[in-house]
Amino acid sequence: MVKSIPLLAKIGAVLLVIAVAVYMLMPLVVVAGASIGSNRFLTFPPQGFSLEWYTEALTTDTYLAPFRLSLMVGVITAVCSAVLGTAAALALTRFNIPGSGAIQAFLMSPLTLPTIILAIGALSVASMTIGAPNVWVLIVIHTVITIPYVMRTVTGVMARRDPFIEEAARTLGASAWNRYRLVVLPVARPGIAAGAFFAFNISFDDAVIALFLRTPQLETLPIAIYGQLEYSTSPTVAAVSTMMVLLTVVLILILEKLIGLGRMFVS
Amino acid sequence: MNERTRKEPLLLLLPAALLLLLGFVTPVSAMLLMSVQSPAGGFTLDNFQRLFDSGYNLQAAWRSLRLGIVQTVVTILIALPLSYLMSRASSKLRSFLLIVVILPLMTSVVVRTFGWVVLMGPNGLMMKVPGAELLVKGTQGFLGTEAGVSIAMIQVLLPFAVLSILGVVSGIKPQLEEAARTLGAGYWRSLWHVVLPLTLPGIVAGASLVFVLSVSSFITPRFIGGAQIPVFAQTIYVDATTNLDWPFAAAQAVMLFAGVMLVLIATARLGRTKG
User: Fold this and answer.
1) Average of per-residue pLDDT across A215-220
2) Which of A3, A90, A222 sits opposite B110 (nearest CB)?
3) What is the SS3 assignment for B67?
């Protein structure tokens, strides 16, 4: 016999859902709303309707050059992180390695260290060795902080595999190359792809590390927005920000398709 | 195991380990070293002495600690009922809430902060909420107030707490609650005595993650709070990039690092005694 849930709890649940949805989405809705108003001064609720800020955002170099840089850094980071993170996850899930717990903890540790600490260290090492930070410093640090995510998604997928398929391939004489190409990697693929997209998202959105490492030649899209926020909040920044949110929506849909949001985020 | 299979895991692990050595171990150790290095190259604790003597930076550190505790408590208090609701909701509502939580999580912090700046100005939408003037003690808006910083920060932190707690609370079998209720416990009593104790590991993990993120964040506090109410991470940023006083910035970062490690170790201990 299951007793019913009290009315108070039901009302509370409804109120909680509404309040949380408004609270979490409001800042994003406001940015999107402000980007389509016709007023040059940023207002919400928007007055009038105009897409001229999108035209402006897409034609001025203020955002185009940073966008190209962010895209490049994000893609290279995603690829490096996917390769290195997948390799590490495949080693840790398929072999009995002495001290594997410690190795895993080491590779996952960038996840718990505040990025500001890593950022200031990276800036000082860069200035001591190569002078002004360049794009490769940014890519290395982004790869370091995204490897844990790839390891997590790949480990998650590998944990549900059938280990005997690879054993069978080995016993039947498959070469290492064929074993990876035909057995291991196809199984891991959804995890690798999800991890890579997530790594891209983190790199593309990062403002902390990019802020410490920024130079006039090294300005990513979030830093361009950051710079604009310091002086003015024009509808053009809102248009750029809205496009970033839309890109995030696309990435979320891809992740949902690949391995499901629940499995991706809830351990 | 033959020779080849022993080499295989090593080859797979090596690239990631080497990159971490270059891009993680080196910068973090450089920062630790820098904080105790005198201009002549010897060992010194002057930078730490300066931190304890400086009213401004120390005040920022205390503010971060205070805000970190407040934000962690409020975040967990919202995340707890929310994650419980998500774990017991229909799959449609659950997916909706998951997106509500994950979309802001995956959006750049500068974009979210931008939204709050628009909402929190003197003429912003938030001043039209009843009671807003009491919260900020005036009509100047939420910008430049600790209340404003916390409201914007908790939106950033909530997803981390929800995801930590949701993982644990989803694993609690509804049959346990049914058993408690069949045995005569009321709805609230079964939550308090059955669900809450079992959720504790998730709460501890979520709280420590949220606290660490809160005390080390500076982009949201910088735009919402501004220069009048600097937080610790903000003074580190200014000392490192504007004042170019790296040893001092490093000493502050080491203090932050030490505080964070303390929280993480305490959490790990707590988790072990529970497990």
Assistant:
1) 92
2) A222
3) helix
